[in-house]
Amino acid sequence: MTYVRDTIARLKQSSPAQSEFYQAVEEVLGSIRPMFENNVKYRHQAIIERITEPERQIMFRVPWVDDDGQVQVNKGYRVEFNSALGPFKGGLRFHHSVNTSIIKFLGFEQVFKNALTGLPIGGGKGGANFDPRERSDGEVMRFCQAYMNELHRYIGPTRDVPAGDIGVGAREIGYLFGQYKMLTGSYDGALTGKGLLWGGSAGRKESTGYGCVYFAQHLLEERNNMLSGKTCLVSGAGNVAIHVIEKLYQVGASPVTCTDSGGTIYDEQGIDLALLKSLKEGRKASLIEYLESRPRAKYIPISEYPEDGHAVWRIAGEFAFPCATQNEVSAQDVRVLIANGCLGLSEGANMPTTNDAIELILEARLSYGPGKAANAGGVATSQLEMAQNASMQSWTFEKVDGKLKDIMANIYTQSRSTAEEFGEPHNLVLGANIAGFRRVADAMLEQGVV
Questions:
Q1: 125 catalytic residue (yes or no)
Q2: pTM, to two decimals
Q3: What is the C-alpha separation between 428 and 430, in angstroms, rounded?
């Protein structure tokens, strides 16, 4: 469609050298083309031009002092993408790869993910090119304090509510919130992912992983199948991957892989969850140490990965859960998954599958849960934390998990019914993107040209 193509071309001119952002925009706009064929109201109001441009982009330096007394300088970001549905909501990522393109792609995805939850939250994202894994606790604290010295000017419980992401867990949220409280004198819900002692929500750390598995269950139930008894492939070894693995065991599946930046573990007997948590949540250690306790497991270092993909997807499995990072599933990975009899994928990470790989998935009619639908449980539970903070309440894990199950069921139903409306019931990429887009776009139309 010429309108979509021209919009993307203009975007590339105005926002140069942002390949991940272009990829996210092309994936969404490409899939919603059928909606524009019989509906011109969004075109006349320049909705695409407005929805692909952030309301506000904030970049700032973050100077801090390391353990050797040396001044270090990192770059901080917060992209407030769209507030049509409510306060900006989205995580902070601390990782050496962070740049403008990464943050904008994540923020753009977040807009539609948050819309799918049905909750009153807009979309944003932030972070810094700082890697906590390489730093001491004292250095992480000083960096977080320096980062919040600038960020606090832009956030608040009814304005912009950051959460965690890669590199930002309970420790980092604690340091960030402490500095926010000292700077503002306000003990409010300006961040989510907080500790349970001081405003956090039961079930928040589990929610993205658990929700991803709940979504996969809906995918398989639609085809009269189930996860129980299935051998599952999981990438990542962080919070999302750990809780995908935990929930897979709870539903009777067998997760046999996990990965980190150094390599892939394949444990045919099933990943030892207690050992994985000890390594990654406790000691922040490399997965290669997994072999010290489980010598029969296999470790594939990154140096031995195939040139055209990721080692974890070359292992035989019946369902895949990409939970590490963007673009970790290539077209060739999908070909191998299909050849090995894999039934589908449910994405715990943001945009983990390349666009050409998605095309193969759809052609093969695999069960496929795109990230903005399948991993929306995390931000949904963050909003539940906001609701608890606003009402000065604390809900039980069972209540939060019950709400999470309902939200994931609603996201699946909404995505499926929208896909059916456009004649492609198996295509939840189309269904999720159109459902999310329409909710945001209609809100924008009602609020005028702002």
A1: yes
A2: 0.93
A3: 5
